[in-house]
Amino acid sequence: MNENLLEVQDLKVYFKVRAGHVHAVDGVTFAVKPGEKVAIVGESGCGKSVTALSIMRLVAQPPGVYAGGNIFFENEDLLTLSERRMQKIRGGQIGIIFQDPMSCLNPTMTVGDQIAEGLRIHRKIDKKEARARATTLLEEVGIPAAKERYDSYPHQFSGGMRQRVMIAVALACNPKLLIADEPTTALDVTVQAQILEQISSICKEFGTALILITHDLGVVAGLSDRVIVMYAGKVIEEGETNEIFSNPRHPYTLGLLNSVPRLNEERQSELNTIEGAPPDLVKPPTGCPFMARCYFAKKICNEMPSFDPVEGQPTHRKACWVDVTDPNVQAYAERRRQARRAAQVEAIDEAANVLQGE
Ligand SMILES: Nc1ncnc2c1ncn2[C@@H]1O[C@H](COP(=O)(O)OP(=O)(O)OP(=O)(O)O)[C@@H](O)[C@H]1O
Ligand SMILES: [Mg+2]
Fold it and tell me: pTM for the full model?
């Protein structure tokens, strides 16, 4: 018996566009154990949401195409199931929370009934029992005076409260896996922290596994057991959260971490953004997709590196040819960074001279 709850294997999801196919998810492999909390991070457009939607089998076809791979959930390949069977799994076994609760909640139905509906469909319980359970769920996600608020409509709730309702809907049937796709991006920072805390404690209480999707490495630090870093449709680094934070091995992860402000540490370098843009996913490069933005890049990076364990750390994997911990390699990257900076300053000076001359 496989110990993993979810196993995504070499998943490929493309979108047909006029210019060809967008390789949105391009060979993604990862697994989630029962009760485990996994964060998926990576910048906008790297394929996080498409990965999540694929697990729910909610990618619209067309333009989407499941071009390869498998998604095993409790040893059943979700990509081969009938739509009817899949409907049972959605909500019943796997719950999902999206960034914008208003687009998922039904504006014409009371919040309580929306939670009770899932319970009645998946758990086949009567109206009264469903109402009682839905009220308890509203309390559990932190809605004050849940009994009275049961009959409110979504527009009568604040953004944070609507997001809490979404969490209650997703958790109503006690799913084994909860996917939260940027669940707090639209909310202010204090509410954000409360909601993440709530998701985390509910998952712990019920033993629910969590996939938390975000582009912000900062929010995952205290919350996840493991981090998966995606770039241009691929997983480029994966490891236990403390390994990724204390010992990142992919230059892209280094860049992501360096763009998070830290209050408890004096840093010798200024906060860096990662310069440049990700590659065109219609014509992805055959080599490392981060190469064009990477100061560590060498000739070999024109070939795609395999996704291998980091020496001495079996749970930590990276898809990178270089050893970023080697002082010689670091010196080489620093020289390239300085050279790029100097070239940029020169270009700015030149442009200023041209303008002054006019
Ligand atoms: N329906 C579609 N048609 C064409 N391309 C699409 C479609 N949906 C997604 N894509 C492309 O697939 C890629 C991955 O998109 P995805 O939404 O998964 O990114 P993401 O990592 O979730 O980004 P964000 O952080 O902005 O939410 C992007 O390049 C996006 O433009
Ligand atoms: Mg997204």
Answer: 0.91
